[in-house]
Amino acid sequence: MTTANIQPPKIGQMIGSVMPMGLETDQTANAKPSPPLIARNPALRHFAPNASIYREGDMADRYYKLVSGTVRDSRHISHGRRQVTEFHGSGDIFGFYNGSRISSADAIGPVSLLVCRWHGPHETDMGMHPSTNEILTQLIRHVERLQQHAVLLGRRSAVEKLAIFLSQQASRMGTTDWVLLGMNRLDIADYLGLTVESVSRAFSSLERQDLIEIISAREIKLKNPAALMRFDT
Amino acid sequence: MTTANIQPPKIGQMIGSVMPMGLETDQTANAKPSPPLIARNPALRHFAPNASIYREGDMADRYYKLVSGTVRDSRHISHGRRQVTEFHGSGDIFGFYNGSRISSADAIGPVSLLVCRWHGPHETDMGMHPSTNEILTQLIRHVERLQQHAVLLGRRSAVEKLAIFLSQQASRMGTTDWVLLGMNRLDIADYLGLTVESVSRAFSSLERQDLIEIISAREIKLKNPAALMRFDT
DNA sequence: CGTCTGCTTGAGGGCCTTCAAAAACCGTGG
DNA sequence: CCACGGTTTTTGAAGGCCCTCAAGCAGACG
Predict the structure, then answer these.
(1) Which nucleotides of strand C are protein-proximal, with an atom < 7 A from a CB?
(2) C-beta of residue B2 within 8 angstroms of C-beta of residue A154
(3) Which of A28, A202, B45, B203 to pair with B110, CA 20 to 30 A apart?
(4) pTM of the model
């Protein structure tokens, strides 16, 4: 079974005393009676699968540096729909907003990250752990990714969207011919602006064209990476 | 082919004498045959309609602060199509990339902007004209706008997309009940991930619903701003 | 073994795209 | 002032793709 190497997130194996299913808002509030919320220095924290890291409307008084796991950044839109704006991976710094947040961040699978206090650009100066240079670089990378995402969303065809998405996921994990997806079909659908069904059909279509092989739902072999990349022209 | 008939902006079109009336001429550019392109301090420059400010693949060795006019930021994709990722307005700072640029910037209409030299985050320190604080704020705003754009692109309906777009354009120019569009239908279409025809039909649909009044193609009266905003729920 | 969740597949309808053409707009020149 | 050519915008008709609703299937877990 190739699926053996995939570890579906298990709720029980979380470090610390984190509650399951993330029905509550913020871990930090519940983990301990009243922990020192954020020290002057970044604090390492752990989140259970589906736990909420921050929500739309919250004040943006801290930012985050992802150590391990995948974080979904999304906005709710009408009729229960939602738009996933970005997937964050290890090393990414995120959570900057001018004023209050306009999107929510949630853990997909177990997540570890550094929490840093921040009250605005004026507070971003020397001596902080992620340096101003690193923050600038990350913000710029952020912008680049979001522009790339706009290109994805503007595409007409569902198959094109998925092909490019898979290429990007592969290159992001440093490989060229296979991908281990950190998110489910619904997350992908909301990221690509499609429905779950359309995403599933796109997967099947790519497999029929012999461009990929669906080893399991989460593990994809790219049988023709060049052809997949070519959708991005 | 919708976007096939776009003429790629011509690089030679930097302003000297081509400025339409009503705009101050560029003294510095006319004073010397080949002015020092970028000084240590920001240099004010003028661009003619459709002039290119930077292109995909260029090294990102400078950034820009827009003084007046509208700038279109776009990426070329396959089959002559393109995706507009953002419209920049007065005061916006743009053009940051890690390494080489992944999108092009073009002037829509006459544009004046400050050009600032920049070779990476390490060079962004005190004493620059746009301060590090301002740059951080602008980058964050950039991210917020791009996230908002993703929400727009993810929308199912063309009418929804246009309604939200018009609301945003209005609030961006500080008004609530009318908009003067700085771009044509094709630009809007490529921004919203639609065709010109669909955009035009969406305009007509909104007018039939009595939500807007098309005074001229570029000048729109919002007859029911609240209803338009409600599409953004 | 049965339930639950997530993924896939099928059929029908709606919306956008495509192709085509008319209408409105604009600067130019008679 | 009006006529004229090119561009931009609008409108129409037909087709394709995605969405919706619905059911079947597979994997995980007790």
Answers:
(1) 6-11, 15-20, 25-26
(2) no
(3) B203
(4) 0.85
